[in-house]
Amino acid sequence: MRSSMPCWWSLNAGICREKPKTPRSDKAYVRMIYAIWKDLKPFVNDHSVRSLQSFVKRQTGVDAPEYLNAELANDVIEGLKSWLGRERAKLTKTRIEAKLLRKCDAGRRGCRRLIRGGIERAAVPA
Q1: So what's the pLDDT on residue 91?
Q2: What is the predicted pLDDT for the residue at 64?
Q3: Contact in structure between 25 and 73 (CB atoms under 8 Å)
């Protein structure tokens, strides 16, 4: 028996699920834009659909991803992929630096090379 609360019924045994948070689209490139935006979640302060729409508007002049044609959507996808790549590179660099500095703090070899490589450290073991 269905409850009076609105929900989305799946085809699998009539399980009631929440309404999807991102709009569904028949266009593959719109779904891809939302998927990349979801991957950017840890790096974005405001991860709402409205902020994605602002990004799309800045990139293309179109109000929302659903109204894009394939050519404009490609520009947005490439912009989002570049942004994601930059953020992941920053994160990777930070993790590598932290790992090297932990090794340096532990008194292992490589501290001089670490300093010459551009990572500055106030107290470096001899």
Answers
A1: 87
A2: 92
A3: no
